[in-house]
Amino acid sequence: MIKVEVPLGDRSYSVLVGPGAVNKLNSLIPADAERAFVVTQAGVGVTVDPGIPYQVAHIPDGEEAKILTTVGNLCSSFAEFGITRRDIIIGVGGGVVTDVAGFAASVYHRGVRVIHVATTLLAQIDAAIGGKTGVNLPEGKNLVGTFWQPSGVICDTSVLNNLPEREMIAAMGELAKYHFLGGSQLDKLPLDQRIAACIQIKADVVALDEREGAGRALLNYGHTLGHALEIAGSFDLRHGEAVAIGLKYAALLALTLGRIDESRVAAHQAVLDAYSLSSRLPPKANHEDLVDLCGKDKKAFDGFTFVLDSSDGLEVVSGIPREALLSALKLMEISE
What gap in Å lies between CA 81 and CA 256, rounded to an integer? Predict the structure, then answer.
């Protein structure tokens, strides 16, 4: 078992990583908790027993569940079961579950403790860590949310054996970004250690910038175009697959702006290749529409805003000309 600490003063918590980690859940349950409410989805395949009276609710599958209606329904269920501020919410599932359960916990009674049992690779290396919660609006992803740190996180790596191959490969798109945040040797590590290393990188970033200033925003590398592709709705892309495309695009945009050279773009492609990730734009992707969607990203506080590479590493860059975004999309097609 590997333990990674997220150091946030009196809100610090542990992330337990390894096979069988779910069996350690009870060690994370606060001693004064009288009830637990488990939020999960059908088909997750992981059940938990928190050792105190509890109830289970299943939310719908997919991004369709990440809406305010789902949160409202959960909060009503919390109230019906008698959940109080000293009780615990437990999210068991992937990123959709941890986002929704975390958000519901953060707003019910203005804040109830939450533990995440992350059952997908994507959730284990990213969504369940760091306290960001959120739901989607028709206008964009994660536009409504809170910062609400969990009381603990379980990353049982044995449950990953049951994930479909596409889900595992897709999650590597999120993992690939960590190569550019200090994890250049991640692909050399066994899976448990690789997951723990990603968590450690994120924990270090969150400790310095909990509420997404310039430092934490770097964790969104590759996400601006990635989110645009997801919002477009007409492409069959997992989140990690969209991020992988976004990483290649971010490199080409940095090249267009003269921030990096072609060898650095090749380094990005090499990382994607190491994880068997595609960097190709979906067929018939409308460049103008994608650029418009990039402008609606929640980080776009001063015109088009992207996390971009440079000789000094990753930086948040604002005020990027629309023409540069379109030129980089054209380069995406040429480089395929």
Answer: 56
